[in-house]
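Hi R.,

Here's the chain you asked about this morning:
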Amino acid sequence: MNKAIRAEIFARWKADNPHPKTELDYSSTFELLIAVLLSAQSTDVGVNKATQHLFPVARTPQAMFDLGVDELKNYIKTIGLFNTKAENVIKTCKMLVELHGGEVPEDREALEALPGVGRKTANVVLNTAFGQPTMAVDTHIFRISNRINLAPGKNVNEVEKKLIKVIPKEYIVDAHHWLILHGRYVCIARKPRCGSCLIEDLCEFKQKTSDD
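And here is the predicted structure, written out as tokens:
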């Protein structure tokens, strides 16, 4: 896929959705961090159902920490891996209070030092909360990057590096959201909805499908 085609793909996505947003519900950087941490191997819809009850009672790291692990589990027990996630959230809140004055750090190394926060979670927070040109590669983005030949790679790290390199700079901050939404609703795993796709004529996927 050449530079002009990649630019056209993102131009179309921008024209269709100028201000893409995450589908996780949050009202602060701290809430975003917790929502993303909870979303591992879970759906955004499932996380939102839990956090709509959790966040009103624990809007700060101190308030979340004060809940304690067992009480937190009651709020997030509908989410996959909730036992481990509850432990990580409480430990993370303790570190935020003790090391960062209750604020979420705008720094990759500091974020990745938080329990349960890996590279992907850090990338989401740095991009969504702080507007940094990072690329969190989830299953949707990995699939699309390989399927349409946008930035093929054998693993998420390869794909991340290629995407950062090949996506035009004017689109990089919002690219993560466009790619996820495209993978979630159009270029789905089993039978992509090619007939409804904005970039069908630009995509290099060989086995195009109809929407029938």
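One quick note: The longest helix spans residues 82-100.

Cheers,
M.
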